[in-house]
Design goal:
7-stranded mixed beta sheet; 5-stranded antiparallel beta sheet; alpha/beta; 7 helices
Length: about 220
């Protein structure tokens, strides 16, 4: 078995891959909101995404000791931070703007639907889901099962969760950027307490919770 994944792969997207955040990523400044079907609105920290990796993400970088897959990488600040730490790292995003920005930071990224074929499946030591990306696809159990497929048997999933007590939600959402509304897509949220069920259903267990900078990160291992 090769110790390092081969990152060479053509960019690809699946019809299922909806670029829901593309509008926000194309406009760095301004007001950007994630609006759920139940009316809850959350401000998107787009300027933070475009900046360097913030101190809180050091918790994630410190727990990566081998090839890492950054799913929903956005403009690539974490992909770049993992690369600078000396790790073979691949960013994945359906948004062409996100992929271009990640590559501009000197990191490797592909435009692809994470539910479609990806390089080195089953050989990644770490799969990373930050900035609410546990919501991708609107079904955390399905998403974590996909992460399990991508992982090496000794690998971990590093995921950012909502604070304890905020619960779980699944449904449709859309992004509002200024006066522009993006397409609807499936989305979800999980807090630290609600994560155990989907993790278990995906064949993973919560190894630890790591608060940092007012945010919560969980490390999931193969059960």
């Amino acid at each position: 078995m090769r110790s390092e994944p081969d990152l060479r792969a053509p960019d690809r997207t699946s019809p299922a891959g909806v670029d829901g955040f593309g509008t926000a990523l194309r406009r760095r400044v301004g007001n950007h909101w994630l609006v759920q079907a139940d009316g809850v609105r959350r401000r998107l920290p787009v300027e933070r995404w475009h900046g360097p990796a913030e101190a809180a993400t050091g918790v994630v970088v410190a727990r990566c000791h081998g090839p890492a897959l950054d799913l929903g990488c956005g403009p690539g600040r974490l992909t770049a931070a993992l690369t600078r730490a000396g790790l073979t790292t691949l960013g994945v995003d359906v948004c062409p703007r996100a992929v271009a920005l990640t590559r501009a930071r000197g990191a490797v990224a592909v435009r692809a639907d994470l539910f479609g074929p990806l390089p080195a499946e089953g050989r990644w030591r770490h799969v990373v889901l930050l900035d609410g990306n546990i919501g991708i696809g609107g079904d955390p159990t399905r998403l974590l099962r996909r992460c399990r497929e991508l992982l090496h048997p000794d690998g971990t999933v590093l995921v950012e969760l909502d604070p304890p007590g905020s619960g779980a939600w699944q449904g449709q959402a859309h992004v509002v950027s200024g006066r522009r509304r993006g397409p609807s897509f499936g989305w979800a949220r999980l807090d630290t307490r609600a994560a155990h069920g989907p993790a278990s259903a995906a064949g993973l267990s919560v190894r630890g919770l790591h608060p940092a900078g007012g945010r919560w990160f969980a490390e999931l291992a193969v059960a």
